[in-house]
Structure to design on (282 residues):
């Protein structure tokens, strides 16, 4: 039954995505393993791991008020896996229904033998191993994000997108990918706006506001289990204020870590609508 549910879910995700876009990348020296697709639960949806070939899936804007804006989404997962549906597909569908073209990015993750189900339980008890793995893979993952921006920008007319209205966002480790990409970007691949969602900043270096000062939307919960994340979120906000850049910070009292697009019957459930309203107002 679980295999049938997984197959159904994957087919649904594939049908909803309008286009699969491959990304160029340089070969790495890390050993690659077979990519896995793991069905976690009906609420959490599909997780992916061992992503060694970056690609993205585009969801075209729909509805009566289609905009010329786009948002590239980087799901979280400690750079070891991708919470592909909860922090990717579900949000992409919502953005598209609100007239915003959305792109879910499958950036490269650190290779591990077996699936996330096999090794995640023991790995979380070794935080330094997780951090070291994330720091190793982050340059590759953030390069994928920068390549994604460049590809969408170069093909903006094809997708009815304004090349100067391309955003980048991510959850947790995807937030680290977002910020690392923003900090290291150059004119051809700079995001025009960013949205780090409970960003994991411990692995991100060189934290200086980019030269183009992209407007930023930050969301987090005070009771995040990764206690440094609320502090890091506030620091990004303060950096943007200091640089006289546009920024919003939505800090919820409850929500924990990894709420994504799950409904937890808390005020934090409103965060994605706040994001939609913010993008539309840019």
């Amino acid at each position: 039954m679980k295999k049938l549910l997984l197959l159904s879910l994957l087919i649904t995700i594939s049908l909803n995505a309008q286009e699969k876009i491959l990304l160029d990348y340089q070969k790495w020296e890390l050993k690659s393993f077979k990519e896995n697709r793991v069905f976690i639960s009906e609420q959490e949806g599909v997780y992916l791991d061992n992503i060694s070939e970056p690609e993205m899936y585009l969801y075209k804007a729909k509805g009566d008020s289609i905009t010329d804006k786009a948002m590239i989404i980087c799901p979280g997962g400690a750079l070891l896996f991708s919470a592909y549906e909860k922090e990717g597909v579900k949000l992409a569908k919502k953005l598209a229904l609100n007239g915003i073209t959305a792109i879910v990015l499958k950036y490269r993750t650190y290779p591990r033998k077996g699936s996330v189900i096999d090794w995640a339980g023991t790995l979380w008890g070794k935080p330094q191993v997780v951090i070291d793995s994330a720091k190793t893979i982050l340059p590759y993952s953030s390069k994928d994000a920068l390549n994604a921006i460049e590809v969408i920008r170069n093909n903006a007319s094809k997708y009815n997108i304004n090349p100067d209205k391309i955003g980048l966002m991510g959850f947790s480790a995807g937030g680290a990918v977002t910020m690392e990409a923003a900090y290291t970007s150059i004119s051809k691949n700079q995001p025009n706006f960013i949205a780090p969602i409970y960003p994991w900043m411990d692995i991100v270096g060189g934290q200086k506001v980019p030269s183009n000062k992209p407007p930023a939307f930050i969301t987090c919960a005070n009771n995040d289990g990764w206690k440094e994340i609320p502090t890091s979120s506030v620091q990004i906000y303060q950096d943007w204020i200091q640089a006289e850049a546009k920024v919003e910070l939505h800090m919820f009292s409850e929500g924990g870590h990894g709420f994504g697009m799950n409904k937890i019957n808390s005020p934090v459930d409103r965060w994605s609508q706040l994001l939609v309203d913010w993008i539309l107002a840019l």
